[in-house]
Amino acid sequence: MTTDPALFSATELLHAYAQKTLSPVEATKAVLVRIDKYDGTFNAFRLVDEARALEAARASEARWVKGVPAGLVDGVPTTIKDLVATKGWSTRRGSLSSSEDGPWDEDHPLVGKLRAHGAVLLGKTTTPEFGWKGVTDSPLTGITRNPWDPSKTPGGSSGGAAAAAAACMGALHHGSDGGGSIRMPAGYTGIYGIKPTFGRVPTWPASGFGSLSHQGPMTRTVADASLMLTVMAEPDPKDWYALPATGEDWRGSLGASVKGWRIAFSPDLGHAEVDPEIAALVKAAAETFTALGAHVEEVDPGLGDQHDLFRTFWYTGAARLQRTMTEEQLAVLEPGFRQVGLEGAEITLNDYLDANAEREAAGTKLNQFLDRYDLLLTPTLPITAFEVGEEVPVGSGMDRWTRWTPFSYPFNLGRHPAATIPCGLCSNGLPAGLQIVGPMNRDDKVLAASRAYETVRPIALPALA
Fold this sequence. Notes:
- It is a single chain.
- By secondary structure, the chain is an alpha/beta fold.
- Helix content is 37%, strand content 14%.
- The chain has 14 helices and 13 strands.
């Protein structure tokens, strides 16, 4: 077992604090040392606040000494994606169009919950501009890199969070997911990430991309994700879309067996081209559930190619974000993001309403499909991570990032819970991911299945130089 506290999971840290074999100050200092050592290479952070993190760690240490921790994650080093408000820190959203000027005097609901539970907030992780694409580089922060191979992208838009998690620069990491932005980078960096059911984690103000966007945890273990989700999902009345509060401790999902479950496996959703090595790894992962006692059936859920449907909502969301900007702000936007906004502005109201009706029909079909199955398994991504600084693989002929992620956005359109867990390495040494999709509001099934798989295929992290 490692003796470096930076490599401990959140669950291990909390146990060590309770046993008084480790303090939050020691853990935080170890993580800060690791950030100092590695973030110059990976560029996972826009902002690291060492002084405030150590202040929070000392306060946590005092509580643990008295045996009265503030909450479920007291003293755990945690990061926040730079798309949501964090009191005392600027929120720049990866954009030169944003400003450092405050006041920065309010927390996003999930940040407030983490803070109230004693999390040690380290800083804010990188994102592409306004989270618009599936890789992480921006005019503000430059290129974020993959810890498995720094010449490759970590994916996006929660690429900073994914890189920080894979490099053990913090134990808990917040991500957001409007079209795969938790699952894509988690898949490319070989960590665990879950997009909960829409409305599970309160959000305010609402995302510019509307009900496509979910908030969730990105971690190195399923248990840590369950822990973080329990905190993040506490209710907040400012979220008009929020699900009814359940008070559920999602860690309680982890002991469930998948024996007897009926699980659908779709290797391509009926239309996607998948790298043969990834296809083989994902098929083997699906067969693992058979060994765990589930009934796995290869079946096409019949959703079809939803690229153009998703594009309507994503592009109009970008147009909406840009409509409030000044000419000076528009002039400094990344050209790709600006172009997406311009194209979105050309989409008519009738086109949007037709797309909304199509989305409703697709959501109903997915609900009916998942009424017959406990879960749906697919690849997370059809290709491994490609070169940094590129929106699409060089020479692929693809126009936008949406072309290489056909497995993610159908479940943003549907609003269903979906997670990714690594299922092996390809011959190029890069991770492949298994996506686990659950019925609406059955985040517990996704977490239980993820943990069941993790028990036989533990998550392996990259060996850093």
